[in-house]
Amino acid sequence: METRVAVIGIIVENKDSVEKLNEILHSYADVIIGRMGLPYKERRISVISIAVDAPQDVIAALSGKIGNLPGISAKAAYSNVISHD
Question: What pLDDT tens digit does each residue of the chain (85 aa) get?
Fold first, then answer.
């Protein structure tokens, strides 16, 4: 199976969606390498980056599910390194 390393950038503008966001991230825990979250209090948002190693379709599905939450934006940036597991 081919996997890629990617970073999913997430902007949280609606804190009511955070619980659902965490549920989604928990369900993808096996492909998450690491997570960093930064609250930006002055703007009342949070900026989160998720590093993942997974097949491209799994990364796209995760990013899409996150981006469909109300008040949350997500975009994935993929590495060009492909691993064959």
Answer: 899 999 999 999 999 999 999 999 999 999 999 999 999 999 999 999 999 999 999 999 999 999 999 999 999 999 998 898 7
DSSP symbols for 12-80: E--GGGHHHHHHHHHHTGGGEEEEEEEEETTTTEEEEEEEEEE-HHHHHHHHHHHHTSTTEEEEEEEEE
CATH of the domain at 27: 3.30.70.1150
Q: How many residues does the chain have?
A: 85
C-alpha distances out from residue 66 to 2, 60, 62, 80, Å: 23, 10, 6, 23
- Give how many domains the chain has, as a whole number: 1
8 contacts 59 by C-beta, under 8 angstroms: yes
Distance in angstroms (rounded) separating the CA atoms of residues 32 and 50: 7
